[in-house]
Amino acid sequence: METQFHKNIEELNMKILHMAAYAERAVSDACTALINKNIDLADQVIEKDTEINDIELEIDEFSLLLLAREQPVARDLRFITGCRRAVIDLERIGDEAVNISEKTIYLSKLPEVPHNPMLQELVDTAQDMLRTSVEAFKEENAEKAADVCRMDYKADDLNVRILKKTMDDMVTEVTGVRRAVNTILAARSLERIGDLATNIAETTIFISEGITVKHNCERF
């Protein structure tokens, strides 16, 4: 028979997945706004960030209550502490979506330039990493989580390549400096989303396998 404690654990899990869905939507909308220069969508991402923050506070309070009242051990303890880690990363992912949206609004005011395919590739990579990390967390799938860690190298490489390309383009355009700075910052936020997705993947391995693989989970 399922105890009240394990019902609370399941409720915590659902709260985390609910927050993850909000974060995924924020990133998806921010990326769409960036590529399509959709100011209205960028504004929506910024406005809805408070919803992610509210869920974070709710989960923080709920998980603290479980720790204090139930004093869990072993896997239950790993799960609750892992959720507390994941919720921080999800909130920061929401913040990065806001950062991307703010850069989109600024870039929309500048003259059009040819599309940078590397930026689209980084958008796709960051979204894929986030989606896979959430799936791994939901399934408690350590192997899938390790896949996310291995993808982080691609995101890092794309960020560096975009930086170099943007700096090269800067000297040929009157508005080059302003465009370059905002493009670089948007790319940095995308790369950062990949880093935070990797953190969630590391947390998944910690919960599932009981081992800490921070900064080294691609070798799991």
UniProtKB/TrEMBL annotation:
Matching entries from InterPro entries are given as: PhoU, PhoU-like_sf, PhoU_dom
Compartments, as annotated in UniProt? Cytoplasm
> What are the protein's UniProt keywords?
Cytoplasm, Phosphate transport, Transport
Q: Which domain of life is it from?
A: Bacteria
- Please report the stretch or stretches of sequence annotated as the PhoU domain: 16-103, 120-203
> Pfam families attached here?
PhoU
Where would you say this protein principally sits, based on its record?
Answer: cytoplasm
Leader sequence segment: none
NCBIfam families reported for this sequence: phoU_full (TIGR02135)
Please give the subunit comment from the record.
Homodimer.
Biological role stated in the UniProt entry: Plays a role in the regulation of phosphate uptake.
Its family?
Belongs to the PhoU family.
This one is known as: Phosphate-specific transport system accessory protein PhoU
